């Protein structure tokens, strides 16, 4: 997986600090900046989804979690969130597909 901003100096860390301080608007801005530089940065995409979720933008959160999972099919945190959203949306078949993918990647229990 390529890290964001190796050459640019941008990483999701600054956004994570804002997120931890519940300053979601600044966190969102930082994560979007990383994604402008490297649109395929899975950690920044996942982090942006967590901001969306914290602010109640559940459709956008799902879209970003799904995008992160599509970009990196072995990114367990994204897969878990996508599976949870499918369950909440009463989409059992899709949730089962995601659960199967998760089990194939990590056959041990996930805390």
Characterise the protein shown here.
Helix content is 68%, strand content 0%. It has one domain: Serine Threonine Protein Phosphatase 5, Tetratricopeptide repeat (Alpha Horseshoe), CATH 1.25.40.10. It has helices at residues 13-20, 24-37, 42-54, 58-71, 76-88, 92-105. α2 (24-37) packs antiparallel against α3, α3 (42-54) runs antiparallel to α4 and α5 packs antiparallel against α6 (92-105). The chain is mostly helical and 111 residues long. 35% of the residues are buried.
What structural keywords apply?
6 helices; globular; disordered N terminus; mainly alpha; Serine Threonine Protein Phosphatase 5, Tetratricopeptide repeat; 68% helix; 111 residues; single chain
Structural class: mainly alpha
Helix content: 55-70%
How many structural domains are formed by the residues? 1
Number of strands: 0
CATH architecture: Alpha Horseshoe
Distance between the termini: 23 Å
Topology:
Elements (H helix, E strand, L loop, with lengths): L12 H8 L3 H14 L4 H13 L3 H14 L4 H13 L3 H14 L6
Concise structural overview:
The chain has helices at about 15-20, 25-35, 40-55, 60-70, 75-90, 90-105. With about 110 residues, it is mainly α.
């Amino acid at each position: 997986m390529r890290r964001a901003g190796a050459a640019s100096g941008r990483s999701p860390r600054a956004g994570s600090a804002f997120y931890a301080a519940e300053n979601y608007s600044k966190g969102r801005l930082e994560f979007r900046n990383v994604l402008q530089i490297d649109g395929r940065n899975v950690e920044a995409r996942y982090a942006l989804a967590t901001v969306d979720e914290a602010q109640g933008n559940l459709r956008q959160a799902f879209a970003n979690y799904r995008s992160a999972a599509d970009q990196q099919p072995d990114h367990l945190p994204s897969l878990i969130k996508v599976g949870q959203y499918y369950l909440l949306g009463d989409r059992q078949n899709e949730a089962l597909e995601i659960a199967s993918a998760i089990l194939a990647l990590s056959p041990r229990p996930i805390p």
